Amino acid sequence: MKNTFIAKTVKIFYNEFIMRISNKFTLSRIILAPIIFIIYNIPVWFGLENGSPAAIASICIAIPLLAFAELTDYFDGHYARKLNDVSDFGKMFDPFADVFLHLSMFTCFVFSGYMPVVCYVLILYREFSQNFLRMVAAKQGTAIAARKGGKIKTVFYVASCFAALIQEALVRTELASIWNLDMKLLLHIGQAFFVVCVILAYVSFIDYLKNFGSILKKAV
Does the pTM of the predicted model rise above 0.85? Predict the structure, then answer.
């Protein structure tokens, strides 16, 4: 029995991560998430001053890394469709990787003061609820792929991340003070993005419930 389980596990790994190039792109987001998280927080953890080479370098590295991570979201869907390589595993793995990456970034922005805590908690509740719905659906033999509302929500997640990163870049490079920018105004604009994220997150979640809520009723 043990050898059979190991053989099945190896086969799944081979099929999903070696044969499917789309899942490799998805996996890269999960790998990059903690790396970006660490790079972003190094100046905070070590008490490095804004304007120092290390503080500037950290944000200059974090921004392109996040841009690449977000770009992989396009590539995994592109190659899955191009190679006719869409799988039920990929349908669940892709949104999981998105949430894994974005919650990692949101955690950074909560501690940096760019994201309101209430927005973070509400999004956390939504994403855990969505994950529970996907698990129940998977047990019932249904793979819930990202719907249009969920994709629009993700676009705003991405926009909010970069809005916060730009603010942090202006602070760490000290360009905010050099250019005499109104950072309070930028902060309010960035927070407005996160509020929109919460609204879109719950609107899309209601859409998922309307389309897949029957699965929950069957599972009860």
Answer: yes
